[in-house]
Every structure is written in structure tokens, then in C-alpha cells.
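Final report, closing paragraph on structural work. Over the funding period we assembled a curated collection of sequence-structure pairs, and we close with a single example.
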Amino acid sequence: MWLKKLEKLTRNLKEIEGTHELSFEQLFPPEFVSKHSRYPHAKALFDAAPFNIESQEDFENLDPVEMDRLTDSNTGFSSWEEMMSQAGEEYFADKIQTS
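Its predicted structure, as stored:
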């Protein structure tokens, strides 16, 4: 039993080894957003923002202070950076699970 779990853990670790680019949806799935905010998914969270995000360019050009305000007032995180960090940790923790 433990040998199979060890083998699965090894496979999972090899799968996430190296540098990864995650899509927004991978990093902030509905389960993550609903767990850490009152919104069911990321789109609903951003719809609550006092600014419009219609494109990737809009998102990339957002004022970091505004993102921190949105995050602080609508989630359990005090900053956007903190939220992204936790999302990454949860994503990779899920990927290495053996059960």
C-alpha cells in the first residue's frame, strides 16, 4: 500500500517539476475563490471591482494598489500577492496528493 502511494507521489512530483505557466482558471478555480471569498468564481469577484477588466491587457495594466484593495475588501487575504501565493500553494499541493 505505502509503496503504491510512494510511486504515485514520485509520478506527481515529476509532473510538476520545473517551471510552469498556469492559466488564470487553473490558479483560481471556483473552489479556491468560493473558499476564500463570498463569490462563487473569479469572474464574480472581478465584477465586484470598481474597475473594468475586459481583456488580458486590462488585467495586466491594473494598478497594484487597486488589486490589493479589491483583494483585501473581498477575500480573506490582505493583498493580491498573498492571494496568488496561496492559490499556487493549493494548486501544487493538490497536484502532489497521493490519495
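Residues 77 and 83 are 6 Å apart (CA to CA). The chain has a mean pLDDT of 83. We thank the funder for supporting this effort.
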